[in-house]
Amino acid sequence: MNDKDYTTDTEKDIKKGRRTIQRIGIMGGTFNPIHFGHLVTAQEALGQFNLDKVIFIPTGDPPHKVGKDIASSEDRYLMTVIATASDKNFLVSRIETDRKGKSYTIDTVRELRKIYGTDATLYFITGADAILEILAWKNTEEIVSLCKFIAATRPGYNLSRMKGLEKKLFNSKNNKGEKIFVMEVPALAISSTDIRNRVKNNRPISYLLPGGVRSYILKHGLYG
Ligand code: NAP
What we know:
binds NADP nicotinamide-adenine-dinucleotide phosphate, Rossmann fold, 224 residues, 6-stranded parallel sheet, alpha/beta
């Protein structure tokens, strides 16, 4: 599947010259598995940041999860498609599922820049704990120059480390005034780790994630 194949209302408007600039949410995550916390995060970002669409990008081979209990990239991609199928503003990309080698965010953001052009505003949306590690990611400075960040937090999250990170990231002349947008999402009390543990211990997972994703997990014996 190619990101260029999707035509939303905004893209139609752009073609007709009614609108020029797109605001795209890039929802990055391992989604192992995807749950309602992720979906509420995407929905909140869409509304709060007036985004035209949110593209979910399940990681292919995450460099920071070597040797961890992780479902295959194809299973995580398919669960993400199932979870988002009924929402016209949510799309799922295979960029990282299909790319060979480790999934580095810089490669993904570069590809999306090529597709959407230099005028589009790209917002990389992910968990605050993931963003706090961004200095250890590949080509951090370039990523920061290509997109803005939305950090989703659970309620009561201590924001002091995020402020410290902003100071380190945005201290050059080019990036002055930039910030990481923090978005509190109560539904993030749900976590993929808890869901995996529940499956392992034969505890219920209904109401934590879409029914179709639950059925997929049980049908394919994931996390057991
Ligand atoms: P993670 O370390 O597993 O997640 C950290 C926290 O953030 C967890 O609490 C997680 O909750 C939450 N989270 C993850 N994605 C989220 C999302 N989209 N919305 C809301 N909460 C989210 O992080 P990860 O999922 O593996 O990676 C996050 C993103 O960072 C991915 O796009 C990944 O490719 C990128 N990343 C890039 C590099 C690199 O380029 N070198 C390195 C690390 C991460 P759940 O466990 O419930 O999801």
